[in-house]
């Protein structure tokens, strides 16, 4: 038995702005990323590799605010964050403030496996990448006309927006992630983002912070979050789900529903998360209008992708 779930961010295009063509494009991208991870898991592969491959698929798709589709910061550049965690040994790797790495999640995994550290940032992270044979890309690689126009609308304002778009009802979310449990009972989680449109001062959100945006433990669950990062950091959202299961004996669904639909909602913090537990159960919970998401459970034997 195995389960894989992915998300492409909460805060979707509003239903009024979602055309048939756009909806098909999102479903196709989600299903392609899920399928790549599914192949690994059904062949007995590790959850850690599956979540990496799924997130790489989403990073390579300009529809999502990660990798190729990353938004512009205040300086007209792209800064990317990511993290990955293995539930078997609670080992994690994270990167922040990357400007020349096409697939931040792959570098985060490299930090986990090839360094003695948990988090690397900025120039140092990219030096580590070069020393380990990772090819750096020009900032032009991340250019996307849609993202550029998003930035143009607010670049002269003293404000920022998370995955800003006038078409998005609540433009506060933009992240991708994956969680999985493999046939060996091991869990893993991975998350990647381009952050906020027009962000300043090297701002880093929850995505690259283990326990806030990403967490995995074989004792309980694997979690990947999407939402307003500041709230998710302050509330240690991903770890909170784990704690509610471990210390309060809540089920996966009970824990995720409480954190997202009660705790975060009381703070007016919109967003969501995806999670799987050690028994293969999955939970895809959000308090925004929608969340790009998909999952596959080997017992059900079907790929399901949803937006709202």
Percentage of residues assigned to helices: 25-40%
The geometry reads as globular
Low-confidence runs of at least 5 consecutive residues: 164-172
Order of helices and strands: EHHEEHEHHEEEEEEHHHEEEE
**Average pLDDT figure:** 92
How big a fraction of the residues is strand? 25-35%
Count of DSSP H/I helices: 8
Strand-pairing-aware structural class:
alpha+beta
Domains, number = 1
| Termini Cα gap | 27 Å
Kindly report the spatial arrangement of strands forming the biggest sheet. 4-3-2-7-6-1-13-14
How many strand units?
Answer: 14
Tell me about the largest β-sheet.
8 strands, mixed
Radius of gyration: 17 Å
Describe the overall structure.
- With 308 residues, the chain is of the alpha+beta class.
- The protein has one domain (3-205, 291-306).
- Helix content is 32%, strand content 25%.
- It is built from eight helices and 14 strands.
- The strands form three sheets. An eight-stranded mixed beta sheet has the order 4-3-2-7-6-1-13-14. Strands 9-10-11-12 form a four-stranded antiparallel beta sheet. The protein has a two-stranded antiparallel ribbon with strand order 5-8.
- Helix 1 runs antiparallel to helix 2 (47-59).
- The longest helix is centred in the first third of the chain and has 23 residues, at 20-42.
